[in-house]
Design a protein that fits this description.
Two copies of one chain form a homodimer. Chain A is α/β, with parallel strands linked by helices. Chain A is 31% helix and 15% strand. In chain A, the strands form three sheets. In chain A, strands 1-4-6-5-9-10-11-12 form an eight-stranded mixed sheet, sandwiched between helices. In chain A, helix 3 links the parallel strand 9 and strand 10. Chains A and B meet through helix 4, helix 5, helix 6, helix 7 and helix 8 of A and helix 4, helix 5, helix 6, helix 7 and helix 8 of B.
């Protein structure tokens, strides 16, 4: 990954020592601090201040400042899109798409990925210190929305001196942010790659999120969100929430192919509640490994943001109005076996974009890997992404030849 | 329901006072006690003794003893199929199908429904007293299987003096029991109505059950299954498990139609973790009402029994072998929007029955109501059930005219 380590250092504007005292630098990320003069106006009516955004960059901004690509992460992702994760030691979560030789190559693009507001990897969220009390925010942190996340990202992009993003790219909750970017700042987004997402959260989506939240809140160690002051964490509840979510990320067919009814290290059932089946063992691992890297309250806030997301509702119930006269070039991608964000949701988006006379291409990719497909090695998806960005880059006048 | 109250009283064989002391009569059900001379041989190798089966009957057994219909209940059902439930005060769980004027009418049939072994409504299960310790079994109760449930039902049917059942009927876990009846006792089942079920539990099914079990086990009030001795119950964990299961019982379309993104008693979001959306409020209610009537350990045992179910595995991996030369008349029913037990599972069963030259009819019913459809008012399903039973009754020589 050494060739990707060319992180640009951007000087932060001066902020007071008082503000500084409430901010924590993320050890392995860049951090943009926003002081009292730049509050984040949230949809709930609160001005969040001070706040900070932790982010990573790869590649270099060109002289025209026209080659910036913003990657938006999904629910449990973070800014470490294409570098070894500082907590887990695992590769970046989207190294299949982002990196040398990949469709989004730091050789061509200045790639930015920031931890969302409300997150827990360095951006201000419920695990941060509330400057009013000197204690962890917990449930006193204001509820945030997808538009709030995007508003914070726009402030970061301003800070980086970038007017127009060449591309905004994301899947799942990241795709929601892509769509919100185009609805809120159409003139700042040259091209948009929205993957495995929707313009609103469905009743079933909300149901699964509520299940996860109830699992967290049922854990006595959650303490009404005030676990941090007690030096504990609702590991058990969060693990159950993660297990529930993980089932929705995979298709029935993928689970059948990966695990079927195969037993774990044995041929006969134990007639017990041990993890006899491989799929049980897999789920337990997903749950227990997740809690080591994620804050339970952040999980509540981010799932809530997704539930509230409904672009049409913000435009009088007419989705096409959100994209009226938009110049952005869109590429919408869905996966056949994704039952969390099914193709029908992408089609509804494409119809609205067509009704707005937007420039849009749409691909439904055949795979049995479910929602997770957007993070996996799916060559057709990469080919489409590469072609879309190359075509847009040509129109934008970017030099995408080897240099 | 007065015309359905003609419960037949069947004298139990004498058992010793010592055995009696470990048995509890269910206040509003008949109970069959099985003493030391009649242990239940379980698949795990344990002989369960003594044990008891709580059951309800409706209608009267005819002189030929040829009109008995056994109803098998699903995961969270019980013997109160067609009478007001003694705990909840709600109508019987299958009064849409069973009752006066319904396809399974006590005027024509002697209807039996028993609580499964491992259950918590009067049959012996983990909430019963372990005679060896005088305390509640808890997790010392042996793990049971679908074949164990059916073996216990066969002993009940013997006790009732019935050789051949005119029909065995059930949906979901009840349908698994129907199939197990035909595989284990083909000569004792004249006709079989298997609804919304499968011959094995899929990886996704197991995953959802494991999620539910982990939710229960994550509740500190579960105490390794030993909550009863402490006078508590893992309400929170069991409610989360129920919420997860409930999502799987409904289709995405049904959730959308019932709730969509509609708010609960408000027009604008509260920007909080209250149940803003109707679907959240609905799920919370499903969770909290369930824990009032169901034992958490029973939930673990019955989900485990379903996970272990795999008829083909018990017959060298060849499903058709389970039904070789079977004379039973089958009717298999699935619902288009049931993603828990999809039509593909029913088709696999029908193919195996065809390969065994069995007499089988199959109906896939168009509905958006998901797995739950089998419990709801779906006229096409009732018409098919009625026609199948009438045709089989005619062949069996039953008098199904009004009398």
């Amino acid at each position: 990954m050494s060739e990707m380590g060319s992180v640009k250092s951007i000087p932060s504007p001066a902020i007071s020592a008082d503000e500084r005292s409430h901010e924590v630098d993320h050890p392995s990320s860049l951090v943009a601090h926003f002081g009292a003069e730049q509050p984040l106006r949230l949809d709930c009516g609160v001005d969040l201040t001070p706040f900070q955004i932790a982010y990573q960059t790869y590649g270099e901004l060109n002289a025209d400042r026209s080659n910036a690509v913003l990657i938006c992460h999904a629910l449990t992702g973070d800014q470490h899109v294409a570098n070894v994760h500082p907590v887990t030691g695992k590769p970046g979560w989207w190294e299949t798409l982002v990196g040398p030789g990949r469709p989004i190559d730091p050789k061509h693009y200045f790639i930015i990925c920031s931890n969302v507001i409300g997150g827990c990897m360095g951006s201000t969220g419920p695990a941060s210190i509330n400057p009013a009390t000197g204690k962890v925010w917990g449930l006193d942190f204001p509820v945030i929305t997808i538009p709030d996340m995007v508003r914070a990202q726009a402030m970061l992009i301003d800070r980086l001196g970038i007017d127009t993003l060449f591309a905004v790219v994301g899947g799942s909750m990241g795709g929601m942010q892509v769509l919100q970017w185009t609805a809120a700042y159409p003139e700042r987004v040259y091209s948009a790659l929205a993957i495995a997402c929707a313009t609103r959260h469905s009743a079933q989506n909300i149901a699964f999120h509520e299940l996860g939240r109830q699992a967290v809140m049922a854990d006595p160690d959650w303490h009404g969100g005030g676990y941090a002051d007690r030096g504990i964490h609702p590991h058990r509840g969060l693990a159950v929430a993660r297990m529930a979510a993980h089932i929705t990320y995979l298709s029935d067919a993928a689970l059948h192919r990966k695990f079927g009814r195969r037993m774990q290290d044995r041929e006969l059932p134990t007639f017990s509640f041990d993890a006899d089946f491989q799929v049980e063992s897999y789920l337990r691992y997903q749950g227990s490994s997740f809690v080591e890297r994620f804050d339970a309250n952040s999980y509540l806030y981010l799932t809530r943001a997704m539930d509230y997301f409904d672009i049409a509702a913000d435009h009088g119930g007419v989705l096409a109005k959100a994209f009226a006269d938009i110049k952005t070039r869109f590429c919408v991608v869905s996966f056949t076996s994704d039952w969390l964000f099914p193709t029908s949701e992408s089609r509804a988006l494409v119809h609205a974009l067509n009704a707005s006379s937007a420039r849009v291409s749409f691909a439904e990719i055949e795979t049995d890997r479910g929602h997770d497909a957007f993070l996996l090695d799916v060559p057709e998806f990469f080919d489409i992404s590469r072609a879309f960005l190359q075509s847009a880059g040509k129109a934008r006048g970017l030099s995408l030849e080897d240099r």
